[in-house]
Structures are given as structure tokens and as C-alpha cells.
Amino acid sequence: MTTHTRPIALGPRGRLAWRRIVSSLLHALGLPFLLLGAWGLWSTFSANRFFPSPLTILGALADTWIGPAFVEDVLPSLYRLAIGIIVSTAVGIAAGTVIGLFRWLRELLEPLLEFFRAIPPPVLIPIGMLLLGITDTMKVVVIVSGAIWPILLNTIEGVRATDSVMTETATSFQITWWERLWFLVLPAASPRIMAGVRQGLSVALILMVISEMFGSSSGLGYRIAYFQRNYLIAEMWSGILLLGLVGIFLATVFGLVERRVLRWYHGIREVERA
Amino acid sequence: MPVRPSRRLRSLRKVLLGVTGLVGFLLVWQLIPALGLISPEYLPYVTDVAVRLVDELRDLAFWRRLGLTMTAWAIGLTVATLAAVVLGTIVGLVPFLRRATHTTVEFLRPIPSVALIPLAVLMFGIQMQSALVIIVFAAFWQVFVQVIYGVADVDAVARDTARSFGLTRRERLSHLVLPTALPYLMTGLRLAAAVALILAITAEMVIGNLGLGRMIELSRSAGDAVGMYALVVVTGVLGLLVNLVFRLIERRSLGWHQSVRGEEVS
Amino acid sequence: MPDRSTLLRVEHLRKVYETGAGSVEAIGDISFTMNTGELVCIVGPSGCGKTTLLKCIAGLLPPTSGLVEMDGAPVTGPTPAMALVFQEYGRSLYPWLTVRGNVDLPLRHKKLSRAERDKLVTDALEAVGLRHAARSHPWQLSGGMQQRVAIARAIAYQPEVLIMDEPFAAVDAQTRADLEDLVRELHATRGMSILFVTHDIDESVYLGERVIVLSRSPTWVQEDLTIDLGPERDQVTTRALPRFTELRTHVYEQIQRAKRGEASAPRPTR
């Protein structure tokens, strides 16, 4: 922008732009700083030891997690989470597409799948522990077996609902089966699939944490529970904060991927709204 | 002349296929331990699980635990919904607040509520209140976000019309904002109900307050596989019922709106 | 005329839909032929089964009885000899592909080299005047331009006959005139055979060399009319000709009769 290169020659327009930037910054950061400030003040003047000041927590964040703990606890957690997400997305979309394409298969499996989706995912952890023991495999399997359902069911629904005129167009131009899958069915289902993946992500994160809180000797979830049991309050808070950051990171990455994949979809909606 | 199957025939086929799927699944389950693929110690016979399920259903203690779980669920869902509706309406109606809270909401929402379990335990110990903290935190966002969308979705022309006819603020709220936001609220409520149930049971498993989740965890540590599987089935049925009931409520309250809005879940 | 051999032949086509409430006879008995290089318009009262007819011709729907022949061979399913332009351009173009991607898609399974395909696509886009928009997405274009993309896709497919199902029903009047001239131009300069279905009487007379008037449902061919307006047509002068007015009045009256169900059906020769 010209406002940065020629600060002296600020026209009325430049000043307006500046004002807009400052105002949106204030809007974006005002409340978080206000809340943090209030928290800080309150924690210094009250005797509640369960709520240390934000600065203490930030200090603990650096002390606790930077160093060996990062390699021992954070990385394995993230690794299991990533594997779980990748597997459940790949399997969910593949199986969902097959089931969605064949009506009899869909009708055969739908009640069953609805039931599996309805099972609260964390109760799968005891089953996983029983079948596979307390292992990394168990944790990944548990993450997959919880996160896959929203992806699978949304894919089925998206594939099933392919527009009739689009399908007819493909038929009339004799597009091959693979081309139809790749250029019609999957893109047409992609908004639904992405909605499913978004739900799957939050389930996967929950399962990562819980599976580590149960009998485990490493991982973010384990560490946080450990700090709590030993009354290491600031450390515990720093763990919660770190988990929050992981959640935000996931949401951001997902947002980027989604905007890329569904560019056409958002484009249409924008055109429709205008 | 070949007659295409009528609608009733088709739905009959659907039911039959669905039942076949369920029966097939149960058969496979029964066969896996029977053929020795997995020891019955880890994957018990489905018949054993069914028998245990019936036993549990006749046991008053089971119903008491179930009652505790559902109480936590109901309280948590109610508190979260009320808070979300009030705050969501205020924030949604005032553009300044909407802008000012945006980053805070986007930061808090992705935090997995289970991360708060240790904090809740510190504050309330092994009690229902701990579970409630988790349930409310998770369910709140589902409703809150939908309410904000809903309130902001009021048609500009409709709003101008209302203003030009001199409707008071209160009339506008009840005749314009509320009907627009209601479908969104119902969608949020359905999502929140499912999430609240998940966290009610999770909290009992991890924190150890009384309820179904705790029973599952106890069966596991006692090596009672049959009982554990029976309880997992119970939670599945519970989840199914909650989904069913709230989907019904949602559909009832929407009517005309359902066709317009897709099933977009955030 | 030696080059005008029979291209498409429809004989005693009949289509009955079976529904839960009973059977509905959409098409009674339709027969006509179309020669290579002809531009034939099919016009009829609304709800007379025009779309059903097209789908049967294109092999998307199996007729209950009767025959569709293309170059002497019966049509039993979609064939590369035909390309369709649908009325709902918004739903027949794929929004996740660019304009170029949309035109290119049906060519992928044809055994062509990359360069040949590119040439076909570029050439087709050029023909509809959309070369500059190749990298846009369909939803970024106006309705008329979207329909041009659909036409380009059909041209690039190199069919023997272009089948258009009320293609301009959803665009505004001015765009419509431009698109009509585009169709005339494709017919004149490229010698394309075009089967054009419309409910607009003026459009059918302005475009066609022949107009086939359909009766109301169950449908049969009420009249097969030759349009003797010459090959050069112009939106202003042609439409001002007394002969144009005569023809459109004639077709209009036929349609009115069709609506009232006055015209009598030919005895089916079955």
C-alpha cells in the first residue's frame, strides 16, 4: 500500500485506510487483552491458587514444554493424532464413496453405521485397551474408530446426492467410470466431506487426549493429568494452553485446506449473496 | 407391463436390508469368538452380552447410574443452551460486539473441552460439578455459534420493512429475529445434545463421578468384558435416542426452513 | 442435394412412464427424419414431452417402443455422434472445473494427443467467443456466457449432431438474440447439424430450416413445416419480413390448436 511508502503524503484516503487498520486491530485484540489483564489482576489480588496469573502460565509453558518434554510427550501425541486423522480421512472417504454409489449397500449398512456413529467415541478406549493393550496401535485405532464416522456418513450422503443434471451430462458425454468419480462424484460431495472431516478432527483430538489420560506413560494427556495429580498448577495450565494451541493449529490448517479445496463452493456462495 | 416398485415396496426393501445388515453384524460378532479369531475373554459372545444387557435392564442400580448420567447431561445442556442463547443474541445483534468477540471466540472454540478435565477436578473434585464444567464448555459453543449465525441471518429487506412500519425493538425481536434464528438454534441444540452426552460419559470415565462411564471403566479394570460391552451398547442406544429425538424436534420446528438450509455442521 | 443424406431417424417413438399412481403416456407416436447439415427446430406447447423426446433420442432414456436411428444404426445408449446442451446450464457445467476444464472433460477418454485436445478446446472457445474466459470458473460468468461454455463443450466433442434442449429459456432477451445468432453462425460456417428444441415460436421460425410442431401430450408430430427464409438471417430484417410474420402466425395457430387438442392424431400404424 502507498501509505507505508509515503507516510508524509497521506491523503484523506490514506488516513482512512490507516484508521481502518487500527480499528480492526483494536477490535481483534482488545477483548483478549482485556480478559488477560483482568485475569492477571484478579490472580494477583485473590488467594485462589488454582488460577495462576497468565504470566506465570506463559513462563511454565516455556519451562515445561521446550526441551526434552517436547520430544517425549508432545511429538508422540501429535504423531498419533496425525496418523489417526490421515487414516480415518482416507478410509472414511474411500469407504463412503463405495457405499454411497451402491444403493443396496447403503441400505444394508446405514442403520449399522448410524449406531456406530451414535456410540460416544471415548467408550471405545476401554475396548481398545482390552483388545490391543496399552499400546500406540491402540491409541491410533481408537482415534480412527471414533473420527471415521462423521467422515464416512457425510461422504455417503454427499455421494448419494450428486445432482441429476450433472450426472446426465456425464452420461451423455460418455465419461468413463473413473473420470466420473474423479471429476463429478468426489468434487460434488466435497462440501459435505469437508464438513465431516471438520467434525472428525475435533473427535480425534478428544480421543488423543483421553486415550493418553488412561493408562499411558507419555503424551500430552498423560502429562496434564500427572501435573494435576501432583498439584503442579501452573504446569497443568500450560498443558491446557498447549492443547488449546494444538486445537487452534488444527482448525487453522483445516481452514486453509478447506478454502483451497472448496474455493469453487465459497465462490458460488459469494456470487449468490452479492 | 413391468411396474416399477412403488414407494411402499421400496421402503419395505430398505427396512429389510437394514435389518439384514444388523443381523449380519451380530452374526459376525458371534462368529469371531466362536471361531477363535479373538478370545472370548477380549471379545465375548454376542449372546452373552445380550443376556447381560437384559440383566442390567432389570437391575435398579443400573437405572440409577443411567439417571445420574442423564441428569448431568440435562443440566449441562440446559445451562449451556441458556447461556449461549442469551450471549449469542446479544453478540449477534450488536455489530460492535460481534467484531470485538470474534478473535476470542475463534481462539476458545477449538480448545478441546477434555483438556479442562484436570482443572475441573482441581476445582470440584470427583463430583458431578466437574463433569458439568466440561459438558457446558463443549455444548456452549455449538449453540452459541449457531445463534450468532441465525441472528445475523435476518433478511435486510425484512429488517428495513419492519423498521419502516415502525415496529418497536421488542416487536422486531419477537417477529423477525426469533423466527429467523430459531432453525439455527435447533440445529445447534441437536449438535450440543450429542456433544453433551459424549462428554457426560467421558467425564465419568476419566474423573470417576458416578454414572455409566464409571461403570464401563470399572468393568474394564475388573476384567468383566461382557459387562463392558453391554454398557457400550447401552451408550450407543442412548446416543441414537438423543440424535433421534433432537432431529425430530429440529424438523418439527423448522418446517419451511429445512429445504432452504443444508445440513451444514460447524 | 447429394450431401444431404438422412442423419437421424425417429420412428413411431412412444414413451410411457410408470408411476405409483398408474402409467402416464408422455409421448404417443413421433416419427420424423433429419438430414445431415440441417437445422431443425422442435416446438410444442409446454408440457408436451419435449425433454422426454430429446432424452430418448440421445439415448438417456429407453423408449417404451419405437426406434431411433443415427446413420442407419439404432441408438441404444449415449453415443459420441451426439452432444447435448441442457437448459440448466448452471447444473450441467461443473463449478469446480474452469471453463477450459469443462470443455476438455468429455475429450479425455477420446484417444487424442494432448496437443489435439488443446486445439479442439481452444478452437471451440474461440467459436463461442470465450477465449479470454478460459481460466475462469463458470459461476464467475453471466448466464449467457455459461451457456456459451456448454455450447463450446458440445462443439469440441465433435458430434455429428448438436442437440439443444431449450438452451436459452433462462437467459434475458438481449443475450438470447446473441446466442441465437451464434447458433445460426455455427450452422452456417461449420455446417453443423443441429436439433433445437424450444417453446418459443419466434425463435423456432427465426432459427430453423424446418420446424416440427408437436401436439400436446401424448405427443405426436402435428406438422412438419419448411421455413423458406433463406440461409442469411438477421435479427432485425428477417424478423420484419412479411413471410416471417406469416410463418410465425401459422406456427402460433398450430400450437393453439395443439393446446386445445383440436388436431386429430394420425392412426398409429401398429
CATH class of the domain at 1-79 and 192-270 in chain C: Alpha Beta
Tell me, briefly, the overall form of chain C. globular
CATH superfamily of the domain at 1-79 and 192-270 in chain C: P-loop containing nucleotide triphosphate hydrolases
Please give the CATH class of the largest domain in chain A.
Answer: Mainly Alpha
| CATH topology grouping of the domain at 1-79 and 192-270 in chain C | Rossmann fold
How big a fraction of the residues of chain C is strand? 25-35%
- Greatest contact between two chains: A-B, 61 and 64 residues
CATH superfamily of the largest domain in chain A: MetI-like
Shape of chain A: flat
String of helices and strands of chain C: EEEHEEEHHHHEHEHEEHH
Total tally of structural domains of chain A? 2
Class from helix and strand fractions of chain A: mainly alpha
Encode the helix/strand succession of chain A as letters. HHHHHHHHHHHH
- How would you classify the helix and strand content of chain C by structural class? alpha/beta
Total strands of chain A = 0
Contiguous uncertain segments of 5+ residues of chain C = none
The CATH architecture classification of the domain at 1-79 and 192-270 in chain C is 3-Layer(aba) Sandwich
Percent helix of chain C, as a range, is 25-40%
- Give the biggest beta sheet of chain C: 10 strands, mixed
Main traits of this protein?
heterotrimer; A: 274 residues; mainly alpha; MetI-like fold; 2 domains; 12 helices; disordered N terminus; B: 266 residues; 80% helix; disordered C terminus
List the helices and strands and how they pair.
The complex is a heterotrimer of chains A (274), B (266) and C (270).
Chain A lengths: L1 H4 L6 H34 L8 H12 L2 H34 L1 H16 L5 H9 L3 H25 L3 H9 L4 H37 L6 H10 L3 H29 L1 H11 L1
Chain B lengths: L6 H28 L11 H12 L2 H34 L1 H14 L8 H8 L3 H25 L3 H9 L4 H39 L4 H10 L3 H30 L2 H4 L6
Chain C lengths: L5 E14 L2 E14 L3 E5 L6 H8 L7 E6 L2 E2 L7 E4 L3 H4 L6 H6 L9 H14 L15 H14 L4 E5 L7 H18 L2 E6 L2 H7 L2 E5 L4 E8 L10 H4 L1 H19 L10
Parallel strand pairs in C: 2-10, 3-8, 3-9, 6-7, 7-8
Antiparallel strand pairs in C: 1-2, 1-4, 4-5, 9-10
